[in-house]
Amino acid sequence: MSRIGNKAVSLPSGVTANVDGQTVKVKGPKGAVQVVLHDDVVVTLDKGSFKIEPRGEGKRARSLWGTSRTLVANLISGVTKGFEERLEITGVGYRAAVQGKSLNLQLGFSHDVNRDRDHRRRQAESRPGRRRNPRLPPARAVQGQGREIRRRIHLPQGRQEEVEGLRAMSRLPCRD
Q1: Could you give the residue range(s) of every CATH 3.90.930.12 domain in the chain?
Q2: Helix (H, G, I), strand (E, B), or coil: what is residue 155?
Q3: Which CATH code fits 9-80?
Q4: Of 3, 20, 110, 115, which has the fewest beta carbons less than 10 angstroms from its beta carbon?
C-alpha cells in the first residue's frame, strides 16, 4: 500500500487545475504545465485537491500510484515556487558569467559553452561528465551543490574485504 499515494494534493490559492481523462493541466503565477498520467491510475479533482487512486490491485498500478501523486505535486510546486538548484564550479580555469540572457561557461573545452539562463541544469552539468571520469578532478567542473563523489580504496587483493568490513561496522565515510 502506497503511503505517498494516500495523501491528497491540495491546490494553493492562485492556482487553477483541470483534469481531462488522464491529462492533468495546472496553471499558476509561474506558468502552465501538464502531465499525462498512466492508465493504471485514476485522478480526480474534488474541492481544490487532487486524489489519485490505483485502477486495479496489480503490482504495476500500485507502483504507479505514488509516482503519479508525486508528478502532480511537482506540477503544483513548479507553477507556484518554480525550480532552482545551485551549482558549484570547482577547479582551476573554470568560469561562468551571465551575459544578457545567456550563461557563458568555460569548462576546459576548446570553445565556450553558451546556454540560455532557463536552460535545464542537467544538460549543462552532463556535458563535461559525459566524456570524463567524474572521479578525476578536471571532470568536476560543474556539479550540484553538496554533491559527493564516492571513491573506492584500492588495496592489494585480500585486504579490500577487511576494509569494507571495518567500514560497515564503524560506518566511516569513504576517503580518497
Answers
A1: 9-80
A2: coil
A3: 3.90.930.12
A4: 110
